[in-house]
Design a protein that fits this description.
Number of domains: 2
Distance between the termini: 39 Å
Order of helices and strands: HHHH
Number of helices: 4
Shape: elongated
Radius of gyration: 20 Å
Number of strands: 0
Largest sheet: none
């Protein structure tokens, strides 16, 4: 992602120098709390909201999301097609 975003950002804003530190969400929030990072790209909405509420950040913006898709054979031997409850679908698959 940064391979695509950073060149465009740096071309538009040559006055900024960008350094990427790749760590997990928890460590990124620690870096932010210590003021060792200016921008965080993390994936824990509740922790992000708490971070901002505690005064460590000024704004939280969603920039991406993900979907999880359960894929199986067209014959659907576990009869899970159309289910929205993934736990139930996995239970049916395990039992089939």
């Amino acid at each position: 992602l940064f391979d695509r975003l950073l060149p465009a950002f740096e071309a538009a804003h040559p006055e900024y120098e960008v350094h990427v530190t790749a760590v997990g969400t928890g460590q990124a929030l620690v870096l932010g709390r210590r003021k060792d990072a200016d921008v965080l790209l993390v994936h824990a909405p509740a922790a992000e909201s708490a971070f901002v509420a505690e005064g460590h950040g000024t704004a939280r913006c969603e920039v991406m999301y993900n979907d999880f898709v359960l894929v199986g054979p067209p014959s659907d031997p576990a009869s899970v097609s159309g289910l929205w409850d993934v736990a139930e679908a996995l239970e049916r698959i395990a039992a089939s």
